[in-house]
């Protein structure tokens, strides 16, 4: 005779979460906007346990400038008025899976604006575009300004190598190069740069979400 035996293998939290980098680097203007994204820190856990991010071991004044999303690891600028006191900020962060902890550092260079140096109006731009549209769709527009708060005499470029998008070097418009499929890739991250006539530059990130068009029949 035969019988079926079902064996359930339970997960044991025996893997330490690991940050993608031990040191993250970024820049902030002294005139940065409140609630703008500073950077992302990310960790992976082989056990797929829920992770919690924290800023740790920093003095109270520095802690009051930033906030970290405990679920996503996004670091947000909450008190930009204090940036003028610093030229360089080093943040310490941790990630914990309930048992194990890993650590990383975030190096933030504080930059004072000059007359000709460009600055993006946002550190991160978020955009949505529907899948299955023909190429040539304008997804979003990035804007950089100089200290006079006027755009112009700036050249935009994509730092990220991509076959899906291009950027208009004059207007900052980000345009699709081909039809996008959410099932292949639901999210795109791009890095863009603005370059002034005297070769000073600033950068920003663009997050593009591909919206579902319900093009797959149920099975």
UniProtKB/TrEMBL annotation:
Domain Cadherin: 20-120, 121-218
GO CC, alphabetical: catenin complex
Pfam families (alphabetical): Cadherin
CDD domains reported in the protein's UniProt record: Cadherin_repeat (cd11304)
Listed InterPro entries: Cadherin, Cadherin-like_dom, Cadherin-like_sf, Cadherin_CS
Sorted UniProt keywords: Calcium, Membrane, Repeat, Transmembrane, Transmembrane helix
Subcellular location: Membrane
Listed GO biological process terms: anatomical structure morphogenesis; cell migration; epithelium development; homophilic cell adhesion via plasma membrane adhesion molecules
Keyword Nucleotidyltransferase: no
GO MF annotation, one: beta-catenin binding
Protein's name according to its UniProt entry: Cadherin domain-containing protein
Origin organism lineage: Eukaryota, Metazoa, Ecdysozoa, Arthropoda, Hexapoda
